[in-house]
């Protein structure tokens, strides 16, 4: 259970805190992020920043209705293990 609540100035700041916070807190466990190609620019910019810091980001595509196929997410999660590079990127 969280023991702290952080109030932010808006959605973009919250997204930055959340993604970077989880990424940096767990950087010794792995540096692979799975997201989608249709995220808000706050998510995209944060992921692009983390790529410059050594993270690998897999952008899962969506269908014509904007739906993510969970099979593609599962493939993206299992494709890269700790320390491996994604040959398809
Ligand atoms: C999913 C999502 N992320 C981030 C934002 C940006 O929020 P803010 O303008 O508060 O930074 C929005 C705003 O609509 C949003 O819908």
Q: Quaternary arrangement of the chains shown?
A: single chain
Topology order in helix (H) and strand (E) letters: HEHEH
Report strand %. Answer: 5-15%
Rounded mean pLDDT is 90
Low-confidence stretches: none
Helix segment tally: 3
Query: Can you list the ligands bound to this structure?
Result: pyridoxal-5'-phosphate
The proportion of residues forming helix, as a percent range, comes to 40-55%
Main sheet attributes: strand count, strand direction, barrel closure: 2 strands, parallel
Total beta-strand segments: 2
Distance between the termini: 37 Å
Q: Using only CA atoms, what is the Rg? A: 14 Å
Biggest β-sheet: strands ordered side by side in the sheet: 1-2
Structural class: alpha+beta
* Shape label: globular
Describe the structure.
The chain has 89 residues and is an alpha+beta fold. The protein contains three helices and two strands. Helix 1 runs parallel beside helix 2 (41-52). It has a domain at 31-89. The model has no long low-confidence stretch (mean pLDDT 90). Helix 2 (41-52) links the parallel strand 1 (32-36) and strand 2. 10% of the residues are buried. The radius of gyration is 14 Å and the shape is globular. The structure holds pyridoxal-5'-phosphate. The site of pyridoxal-5'-phosphate has 6 residues, from helix 1.
């Amino acid at each position: 259970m969280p023991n702290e609540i952080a109030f932010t100035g808006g959605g973009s700041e919250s997204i930055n805190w959340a993604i970077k916070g989880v990424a940096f807190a767990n950087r010794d466990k792995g540096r692979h992020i799975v997201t989608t190609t249709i995220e808000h620019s706050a998510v995209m910019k944060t992921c692009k920043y983390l790529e410059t810091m050594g993270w690998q980001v897999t952008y899962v595509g969506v269908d014509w209705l904007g739906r993510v196929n969970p099979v593609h997410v599962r493939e993206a999660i299992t494709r890269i293990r700790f320390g491996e590079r994604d040959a398809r990127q």
